[in-house]
Specification:
Number of helices: 24
Strand content: 5-15%
Bound molecules: ligand C2E, calcium ion
Strand order of the largest sheet: 6-7-9-10-11-12-13-14
Distance between the termini: 64 Å
Helix content: 55-70%
Structural class: alpha/beta
Largest sheet: 8 strands, mixed, barrel
C-alpha cells in the first residue's frame, strides 16, 4: 500500500523509538543485573535494526517487513516476560501499539490481522499466565490494540483509495506516478537501472462498441489479473486510465525490461496489446521518460499494433537526422499515377514522401513517418510534403496538358494538431492548387479510433471542397458496416486486398460486392497496388473506377514522371475505354522509357 521508501522509513523509525522506549523504561527499574543486561541488549538490537532500515530498508523485499514486525512482537514479549513489576510490564506492553500501527498501515487486511493475532496471543499468554497483570489487563490491552489497528487500517485505506483503480484493484495514475517518483529517486541514489512500459489494448473501442461496456470492463479486469500473475514481484503494474496500463520495472535495463514485457504480453488473454518500453537515462526527468515511452508505444501502434517497441538510440538519431532534413527542406516528393477507365487514362497522382538519409540512403516512409509522429515533427513534415506536392503537381499538369487530382497522405497525429485544416488552406492559397482537386488520404483506423478533433478537421476540409480518401481499406480490421459512416469521398482498397483477386473466388466476390456497395454509397473506389495485367483485366471487368499500381507507373519525381500511355494500358489487356472517351495522346519516347525503367 505504500512505496518501499515510506515502508522502510516508518518501520525503521518505529524500531528506533521502540528501542529508546525500552531503554528508558529499563533505566527506571535499576534492579537486577540480568534484567538490566537484557534491557540494554534488546534496546540496542532494536535501535540497530531501526537505523539499518532507515539507511537501506527500501531495497528489502516485502516479506522482510513481515519478518521484522513479527520480530518486534518477539522482542516486546521478551521484555514483558522479564519485567520485574506490574507497572514495568504494562509499560513494555504499551510498545505493542507499534506492531498494530505498522501492520495495519502497510499490510493487506488478512496479513495485518495475522500479525495482530500473533501479537495478541503472545501478549495474552505473557500478561495473564506469566505476568502480574492478570486476564483483565490482558483483555483491556488486547481491545486497545485491536481498535488502534482497525482505525489505522481504515484511515489508510480511505486515504489510499484515491491511488487505487476501482475496476482492476491496481494502482491508478496518481498512485503509479508517486511510485515512479520514488523509483526514480532510488535509481538515482543507488545508480541502478530503471525501465518503464506503457501498454495499450488494441482496438479496445471496438470491444466496447460491439460487445458492450461490461465486456470491456471484464477484459480490462482479466488482463490485469493475467499480467499481475506473470510479472515479477518487484514490478508495479497500474491502470493509468481507459485502456492504458503502465508498468514500472526497477533494476532492469531496456533489453531486460523488453523480455519481461514480452512475457507479460504472452500471458494476457487473447486480446492483442501494443507496448512501448524505455530505460531511464541519467539526466532525464520522469516526464521525459514517459514521453519517450509514449513515443515508443506510438511507434508500436503505427507499425501495425500487437507488438512491443523499445525506445532506442537508433530511433533517437533517426529523429535528429530527420529534424535536420526538414529544416533543410530535404524531404522530397514523388508521384504515382492514378488512372481511370480500366487504366487507360491518367486522372491524378498520389504524392509520396521520400527521404535520402545521409550515410544511410533511402529510408522508407513506413519508418520515418512513425518516427516523425513520435517526435512531434509530423506537422512540419506534412506541411512541407503538401507544399512540394502542390508545386510538383502543377508542373505535371503543365507537362501532361490536363487537369489532375492530387492525393496526399495525412497521419493521425497530424489531423489532431490544432491548425492543420487552416494550414492546408493556406498552402493551397500560396501555391495556387485548387481545393476541389485535392484529396487527403487518411487510414480507416484513424477515423475509427480518433478524437473528435480529427473528425472535425476532416469535416472542415470537406466544407472547403477538399475530398477525403480512406486509405488502406481492407487491411486488418476493415468492416463493410463502417462504410456508410465514414466521412469520406474515396475508398482506397489496399494492395493486400487486391493481390488475391485473381486466385481467390471468395475475394473476387467480396470485391464485386464492395464495388457495388461503394457505388451505391457514392464512394469512389481506387484499387491500389495493381501489379499484373490479370488483376487489371478483372478490375476493368468489374467496373472499378480508379486504379493505381506498379503496372501503370512507380512513384517518381515530377521531372521523371511520364503520362502513362493508353497503348501501355491496352497492352495490359485492361478493358477498352468507352467510345469517344479514350485519349490517343502518344507520349514522347523519353517519357515512355522513364515509365518502363521505373
Ligand atoms: P500508402 O499511402 O498506402 O502508399 C502506397 C505505398 O505502396 C507506397 O509505398 C507505394 O510506393 C507502394 N506501391 C504503390 N503501388 C504499388 C504496387 O503496385 N506494388 C507494391 N508492392 N507497392 C506499391 P511508400 O511510398 O513506401 O509509402 C509507404 C507508406 O508511407 C504509404 O502507404 C503512406 O502510408 C506513408 N506515407 C508516404 N508518404 C507520406 C506522407 O507524405 N505523409 C504521410 N503521413 N504518410 C506518408
Ligand atoms: Ca496513401
Ligand atoms: Ca494505401
Amino acid at each position: 500500500m505504500a512505496t518501499p521508501r515510506v515502508l522502510a522509513l516508518t518501520t525503521g523509525l518505529l524500531y528506533v523509538v521502540g528501542g529508546c522506549a525500552v531503554a528508558l523504561i529499563g533505566a527506571g527499574l535499576g534492579q537486577r543485573q540480568t534484567v538490566r543486561a537484557l534491557v540494554v541488549a534488546v534496546a540496542a538490537v532494536a535501535i540497530v535494526i531501526g537505523l539499518a532500515l532507515l539507511g537501506w530498508g527500501e531495497s528489502l523485499p516485502r516479506w522482510c517487513f513481515h519478518t521484522l514486525v513479527a520480530t518486534g512482537t518477539v522482542l516486546i514479549t521478551v521484555m514483558v516476560a522479564t519485567a520485574p513489576t506490574a507497572q514495568a510490564e504494562v509499560a513494555f506492553a504499551a510498545i505493542y501499539v507499534f506492531i498494530a500501527v505498522d501492520a495495519f498501515f502497510f499490510f493487506a487486511w488478512p496479513q495485518a490481522v495475522l500479525q495482530l493475532g500473533l501479537m495478541l496471543i503472545a501478549q495474552t499468554v505473557v500478561v495473564s499466565v506469566h505476568g502480574r497483570g492478570g486476564p483483565g489487563v490482558a483483555l483491556a490491552l488486547a481491545l486497545l490494540w485491536t481498535s488502534v489497528g482497525g482505525v489505522v487500517g481504515a484511515i489508510v485505506r480511505v486515504a489510499s483509495s484515491a491511488r487505487v483503480d476501482s475496476l482492476t484493484g491496481l494502482a491508478n495514475r496518481r498512485g503509479w506516478d508517486d511510485e515512479l517518483r520514488s523509483a526514480l529517486d532510488l535509481a538515482h541514489r543507488r545508480q541502478v537501472p530503471l525501465s518503464v512500459a506503457l501498454i495499450d489494448v488494441d482496438h479496445f473501442k471496438r470491444v466496447n462498441d460491439q460487445l458492450g461496456h461490461a465486456a470491456g470492463d471484464d477484459l480490462l479486469r482479466g488482463l490485469a489479473e493475467d499480467w499481475s500473475a506473470a510479472l515479477p514481484s518487484d514490478s508495479r503494474l497500474a491502470r493509468r486510465g481507459g485502456d492504458e496500463f503502465a508498468l514500472l520495472l526497477p533494476g532492469r535495463n531496456g533489453p531486460q525490461a523488453l523480455v519481461v514485457v514480452e512475457r507479460m504480453r504472452a500471458a494476457g488473454r487473447t486480446q492483442a496489446v501494443s507496448c512501448g518500453v524505455a530505460e531511464h537515462q541519467r539526466t532525464e526527468t520522469g516526464g521525459d521518460l514517459l514521453r519517450r515511452t509514449d513515443a515508443a508505444l506510438y511507434t508500436a501502434k503505427a507499425a501495425g499494433r500487437g507488438r512491443t517497441v523499445l525506445s532506442g538510440q537508433e530511433h533517437d538519431s533517426l529523429v535528429r537526422d530527420l529534424a535536420v532534413a526538414l529544416e533543410r527542406q530535404e524531404i522530397e516528393v514523388v508521384f504515382q499515377p492514378i488512372l481511370a477507365l480500366g487504366g487507360t487514362e491518367a486522372v491524378g497522382v498520389e504524392a509520396l514522401a521520400r527521404w535520402e538519409r545521409p550515410q544511410h540512403g533511402l529510408v522508407s516512409p513506413a519508418e520515418f513517418i512513425p518516427a516523425a509522429e513520435s517526435a512531434g515533427l509530423i506537422g512540419a513534415l506534412g506541411a512541407s510534403v503538401l507544399r512540394k506536392a502542390c508545386a510538383g503537381a502543377l508542373l505535371l499538369q503543365r507537362s501532361w496538358g490536363q487537369d489532375l487530382l492530387l492525393t496526399v497522405n495525412a497521419s493521425g497525429r497530424e489531423l489532431t494538431e490544432p491548425g492543420y485544416g487552416q494550414g492546408v488552406l493556406d498552402t493551397l492559397r500560396q501555391t495556387g492548387w485548387p481545393a476541389h482537386r485535392l484529396v487527403v488520404e487518411v487510414t480507416e483506423s484513424l477515423v475509427d479510433g480518433s478524437t473528435e478533433r480529427a473528425l472535425e478537421t476532416l469535416a472542415q476540409l470537406r466544407e472547403h471542397q477538399i475530398a477525403v480518401a480512406i486509405d488502406d481499406f481492407g487491411m486488418g480490421y476493415s468492416a463493410f458496416s463502417r462504410l456508410d459512416t465514414l466521412p469520406a469521398d474515396y475508398l482506397k482498397l489496399d494492395r493486400s486486398f487486391i493481390a488475391p483477386i485473381t486466385t481467390s473466388r471468395r475475394r473476387l466476390a467480396m470485391l464485386r460486392a464492395l464495388l457495388e456497395l461503394s457505388h451505391n454509397l457514392g464512394l469512389m473506389v481506387i484499387a491500389e497496388g495493381v501489379e499484373t495485367p490479370e488483376q487489371a483485366q478483372l478490375l476493368a471487368d468489374l467496373g472499378c473506377p480508379l486504379v493505381q499500381g506498379y503496372l501503370y507507373g512507380r512513384p517518381l519525381p515530377p521531372a521523371l514522371c511520364a503520362l502513362p500511355s493508353p497503348r501501355r494500358a491496352a497492352d495490359t489487356g485492361a478493358g477498352n475505354p468507352p467510345p469517344g472517351q479514350g485519349r490517343s495522346r502518344t507520349p514522347p519516347a523519353d517519357r515512355l522509357s522513364a515509365v518502363s525503367e521505373a
